[in-house]
Design goal:
3 helices, 27% strand, three-stranded antiparallel sheet, four-stranded antiparallel sheet, alpha+beta, elongated
Length: 139
């Protein structure tokens, strides 16, 4: 244990001596202290014009970012075509919505859209001149 502590104290002594030699070889230039009058004028000269206005503006509360309106949801987006029943009278479409399954016959309405066409893979609804196609999910 004594040889370990001798090595540590020897290394610390060597470090202190080498630091002192380094400082004597490379002395730092002395810093002259400015008088109080010089320090005040130097402070005033470094200020830019209008600093109070910029600080005041930085301390003002920021306005809230503009509110973005949500993108309009496509019509009948909450419904999915599950199946189609073909019949002589036109047939029915089976749709899965948020409220469960809904059966709509050809010519009937779903959320103000009229079912105008049914194929085994798609149902087409119309309101005024707006057409919406619901397709069966590919599996």
């Amino acid at each position: 244990m004594s040889s370990g502590s001798n090595m540590i104290s020897g290394a610390a002594t060597l470090l202190l001596i080498s630091g002192a030699l380094w400082a004597s070889a490379w002395p730092l230039r002395s810093l002259a202290r400015p008088s109080a009058a010089q320090a005040v004028t130097a402070e005033e000269d470094t200020r830019s014009e209008g600093w109070r206005a910029s600080v005041s503006q930085a301390l003002q509360p920021r306005s809230a970012p503009p509110v973005r309106l949500a993108a309009p949801q496509r019509p009948l987006a909450r419904y999915e075509l599950v199946g189609v029943v073909e019949a002589d009278s036109g047939g029915w479409g089976l749709f899965r919505g948020d409220d469960g399954l809904v059966t709509i016959s050809l010519g009937r309405r779903l959320e103000d859209y009229t079912l105008i066409s049914l194929t085994p893979q798609a149902a087409i609804f119309e309101r005024d001149e707006d057409r919406v196609t619901l397709s069966r999910a590919q599996r």
